[in-house]
Structures are given as C-alpha cells and as structure tokens.
Design brief:
Distance between the termini of chain A: 64 Å
Largest interface: A-B, 34 and 34 residues
Strand content of chain A: under 5%
Oligomer: homodimer
Shape of chain A: elongated
Number of helices of chain A: 9
Largest sheet of chain A: none
Radius of gyration of chain A: 20 Å
DNA sequence: CTTTTACTAGAACTAGATTCTAGTTATGCT
DNA sequence: AGCATAACTAGAATCTAGTTCTAGTAAAAG
C-alpha cells in the first residue's frame, strides 16, 4: 500500500515512547544537576536505555538539550496563544500574558526553570527551528494585538519593544523565584505585575 | 616589619597582572566561543601561560568563569551606584537606572553579554560571594530609593517587585539585542523604556 | 518469507579537564 | 647578605565523560 506522505514515514510507536522517556529523564536530570552536571550515563540510567539508543535518537547530549528546549518553548507558546484567544479587549489581553506566564511557570516549574537556562550550544539547524517556532508565535501574537494598537487602545511603539515591556518584569521575577533568590511565588505578585504591564501599554 | 593585616598578604604585582591577563583572555574566548566551547588550552594560549598557572590561580575552568562573572557584576554595580548618587529626585533616579543599564551594556558589550549567560556552575563559596556582592548592592540602592517611597513620590510595593519592574524590560531588551535577535541598539529605545519604568513607579 | 530499515547494545576511542611532581622566583626575617 | 618559606610556573600524566563504531535484533514493506 502506498504511503500517503512519502517524505516522512511515521515513526514507530516505540520510537515515540522512547524519545519521550528520554526527554523526561533528561529534564529530571538537567533540572536537578544542571546540564553540565548530568552525564550521558545519568540520562541513560534514568531512561533505562543504552548509549547507542541515545545517540541514535538525538545525536548528542546537546541534541537532547536542544530538543527539550524547543519542545518546551513550543508548549509554552501554544498555551499562551490558546489563553489569548479567550480574551476580550486590550486590557484583558495584556494582563492575560502576564497571568499566563505566572500560572504556567508555577504549574510547570522544572520545565520553566530549564527554559530559563542559557547554556545550550544550539546547532545551526536547531537555531533555525527555534527561530521558526518563535516567529510563528510572534506572528500570531502580533496579529492578536494589532487591532488594539490600531484602535488606539494600546500605544504604538517600535515592534521590538512590546515583548520586553509586557513580559520583561514578570519574566525576571519568575526567573529569580525559580533560582531560589525570591521566596514568594509569582502568584502573589501576579495582579501587581499585570497592572504594571497595562499601565505601560494603555494608550494615553 | 610587622604587616598591618596579617590575615591576607598583598599579592605580588606579577600575580595581579597574571590574573588580569587570564580573565581578559577568558572573556575574549568565552564571548567568542561560549564557555563550553572554549578549552583550557584556548585560554592558556590566549593568556600565554601554562596549565599549572591557570589552576594555581583559579582552581578550575569554572573558577575562572566565576571570577569573571563576579568581577563583572561588581563593576556594573559600582557604576550604577555612582550614577545614582548624581541624581536628584525620584523620577530622575528611576530613569537613571534604565539609562545606565543601556549605556553600560553598550559600552561593555562583551562583558555584558557574558553576564547574561547562565551556564556557570557556581561553587558554594562563589555563590556566597556573589550573594554578598548582590546584597551590598541592593542595600545601597534601597537606601537611595527609600526616601522617595516614604514621601509617596514612588509607590509602595513588595520589596522583591522593584528590581523586576524597573529593570526587567530593559534587561530583556538588551539581552535580545546582545544575542543578535534585535537589530536596533538599546540607545534607540532608552528613553522609551525609562519613561515606562517611571510610569510604573510613580505614585498614584 | 525475504529484504530493508529502524532501532538497541555496549565496547573502543578520544578530547579535554584536572592532578601531580618538580622546579623557579620573590619575600620576610635575622 | 643569606637562609627559609611561601608564591608561583611548567608540562607530563591521569582520568572523566562525550562520542563513534561494530554487531546485532526487531519491525515493517513488498
């Protein structure tokens, strides 16, 4: 029987499972001991598989790290977009970004913590994939907010300024909380930061 | 002749020089190839010294990275405090934080870029040193801003919220610029971000 | 049922971080 | 000055951990 899409065969069920197992194991190791702190052997043991298997699926230790990172970002982005679509109006949307950031980071603490790490040497192709993921996300988000800017409900600013202005503070707060510098969980300051974001964004 | 402070001898002139040379060499390597990407051999060649010498002064590769990080942060902090002391009033002070962040990052681009990396496995003592540096800094900064909060010129917020709210956005912008995602240098958005910080901070 | 391809295993290899031993140079003290 | 001690430098040897390689097993395609 001819396969519907010839370019890419469906991976076996076992493959999907193994990759997922490895990524989960890696997340556990990475978030406990850091990327440098975990060895291939650690991941291997945690995932109950052989070195060969790891290298077959991911090519290298950094390959595992990349994959985990890109998948995590994608999950976050999907969640954010879903949340935005349920909003009405500019204020609710801007605040939703901040609130979602809080909620998601609290719910997915170890993944969030991993996504804050900067120590992955992305390979060229991985960098490209990540860029693509990010651009698709930004396109969706800007499409969402565009009308509010057009109508004057939100300020008109250089495009590069929006993300840092809206997410910068909560991101920084969460980062510090995740790395143990701050005690109080983000939920406590959620509304404060949401209000602050809106203060900055609302039209004059 | 008895030494004034017996606990810690003055290091030799040659020692000071060599440490500085190594740190400069390391910064060059790290910011070009990343921490993982540079080998001890690279630093050794760039600094014109032997492996033994490196290990004598810094104990390990991470030791070099730690030292560079802590020294960089200290430099940044000193500059910020100096700048603040020249300010009059709450608005000028808040805006000065943002402006200084911009200016310093632009002037010390490679060091700034290095300080944004998160991939250093700090040893326990280094972590403590860093914490001490940070707390001294925070104490000075809060002493500076305290009166403005007391007088109502600035809002009263949970202490942990100030740094993320004021510096978060510009920090995020600069980070993206340093890693090549944004084209326009921070100078271009400096006043915009300074205004935003003040919008968030000024009393109602 | 055979051929091909995806996948697994673990031993062998290798790059690079760290340790060790042997020296050299400066400083403090009498 | 001259000895003792500590700071420092050098580079070979070691050891850890990432990667590669070869041989095999299981599953899908035809």
């Amino acid at each position: 029987m001819r396969r519907t899409r010839q370019e890419k065969a469906e991976p076996r069920a076992a493959t999907v499972a193994r990759r997922a197992t490895v990524l989960a194991a890696a997340l556990e190791c990475f978030s406990r001991d850091g990327i440098d702190g975990t060895t291939i052997g650690d991941i291997q043991k945690a995932a109950n598989c052989s070195v060969g298997s790891l290298y077959h699926h991911f090519g290298s230790k950094d390959g595992i790290a990349e994959e985990l990172f890109i998948e995590g970002i994608s999950r976050f982005n999907r969640g954010m977009v879903r949340r935005l679509r349920r909003c009405r109006g500019a204020e609710e949307s801007v605040k939703a970004v901040v609130r979602f950031y809080c909620d998601w980071s609290t719910r997915n603490r170890s993944l969030a913590s991993y996504l804050h790490s900067r120590d992955i040497d992305f390979s060229e192709p991985a960098r490209d994939r990540l860029k693509a993921v990010y651009q698709r996300y930004i396109a969706e988000v800007f499409t969402w907010f565009g009308p509010f800017v057009a109508s004057g409900e939100m300020r008109t600013l250089p495009p590069d300024a929006y993300v840092p202005l809206i997410s910068g503070p909560i991101q920084e707060y969460v980062r510090r909380w995740l790395s143990g510098h701050y005690e109080r969980p983000p939920g406590v300051v959620k509304e404060l930061f949401a209000d602050a974001a809106w203060r900055v964004m609302r039209g004059p």
